[in-house]
Design goal:
The complex is a heterodimer of chains A (113) and B (116).
Chain A lengths: L3 E3 L3 E4 L5 E7 L5 E8 L3 E10 L2 E4 L6 E7 L2 E6 L8 E8 L8 E2 L3 E5 L1
Parallel strand pairs in A: 2-11
Antiparallel strand pairs in A: 1-3, 3-8, 4-5, 4-9, 5-6, 7-8, 9-10, 9-11
Chain B lengths: L2 E3 L4 E5 L4 E3 L2 E3 L6 E7 L6 E7 L7 E2 L2 E6 L4 E6 L8 E8 L8 E3 L3 E6 L1
Parallel strand pairs in B: 2-12
Antiparallel strand pairs in B: 1-4, 3-9, 5-6, 5-10, 7-8, 8-9, 10-11, 10-12
Classes of the chains: A mainly beta (113), B mainly beta (116).
Chain lengths: 113, 116
């Protein structure tokens, strides 16, 4: 069974803090993704990575950065958290070349106060 | 650019009845894939069904079927014999061609409530 884990289910941070969200997958998938989910907007892609140290911007990268130093781990970084980054963050992974589903982690609900 | 539109913010259905959740899409890719995911109140994303753009038959998975109408660019999810456990948020999503690295574009979601 594919497993995608995220470091926290709930996180509360203060405005201006640097925030790290960690995602780990155990199935040797090449592609990893970070989405944020907001009511009425669905899931929107922040960044994705198709290989170690390789990353590409998604639809809403502003205010975020990512890091992928190992194949199994993909980190989302909020350099200076703001209240408009309060959201649910979902990590996902998928193997390269297989046109099937993405495997999602359980999500991190981040509140920035 | 790809776009997914789900026009039904909320849907209600009686237990044991069938329900259709609407999804329309827009893409310039010749090859693409369409997905439906279920998200219960616990938050996890559960994959339900997949349809490839070149698949001639509509996809089915148990009580779920995908009504794929390519010319109309629609990919509606049909749930037969609804159960109380089907109450959840449902997302339609699209994957582009092989150059897209499998990234998905999601619709806004539809909240389904099943009444006893």
């Amino acid at each position: 069974d594919v497993k995608v884990t995220q470091s926290s289910r709930y996180l509360v941070k203060r405005t201006g803090e640097k925030v790290f969200l960690e995602c780990v997958q155990d199935m040797d998938h090449e592609n990893m993704f970070w989405y944020r989910q907001d009511p009425g907007l669905g899931l929107r892609l922040i960044y994705f990575s198709y290989d170690v140290k390789m990353k590409e911007k998604g639809d809403i990268p502003e205010g975020y950065s990512v890091s992928r130093e190992k194949k199994e781990r993909f980190s989302l970084i909020l350099e200076s958290a703001s209240t408009n980054q309060t959201s649910m963050y979902l990590c996902a992974s998928t193997p390269q070349g297989v046109p099937y589903e993405q495997y999602f982690g359980p999500g991190t609900r981040l509140t920035v106060t | 650019a790809q776009k997914i539109t789900q026009t039904q913010p909320g849907m209600f259905v009686q237990e044991k009845e069938a329900v259709t959740l609407d999804c329309t899409y827009d893409t310039s890719d010749q090859s693409y894939g369409l997905f439906w995911y279920k998200q219960p109140s616990s938050g996890e994303m559960i994959f339900l069904i997949y349809q490839g753009s070149y698949d001639e038959q509509n996809a089915t998975e148990g009580r779920y079927s995908l009504n794929f109408q390519k010319a109309r660019k629609s990919a509606n999810l049909v749930i037969s014999a609804s159960q109380l456990g089907d109450s959840a948020m449902y997302f339609c999503a699209m994957r582009g061609d092989a150059t897209s690295y499998g990234k998905l574009t999601f619709g806004q979601g539809t909240i389904l409530t099943v009444h006893p």
